[in-house]
Design brief:
Length: 66
């Protein structure tokens, strides 16, 4: 199809058809955003498990007990 033919075909379709096509494209993109955010949170959570506990300084413990 040439560009002119595509333009004519698009102009002949109704607005509801174009809206349906747009929603069919936009819906997977909109649903992938929370999925990617949750996967990122899961990766960050596993990274925090691997961090070692900080070593306490003996000077700080004596000051805390007063």
């Amino acid at each position: 199809m040439a560009n002119g033919a595509v333009g004519e075909q698009v102009s002949e379709t109704s607005g509801s058809t174009l809206l349906a096509v747009l929603l069919a494209i936009a819906m997977p993109i909109a649903l992938s955003v929370p999925l990617l955010a949750s996967l990122l949170g899961l990766v960050i959570g596993f990274r925090m498990i691997r961090l070692p506990d900080p070593v306490a300084s003996s000077d700080v413990e004596g000051m805390a007990l007063g």
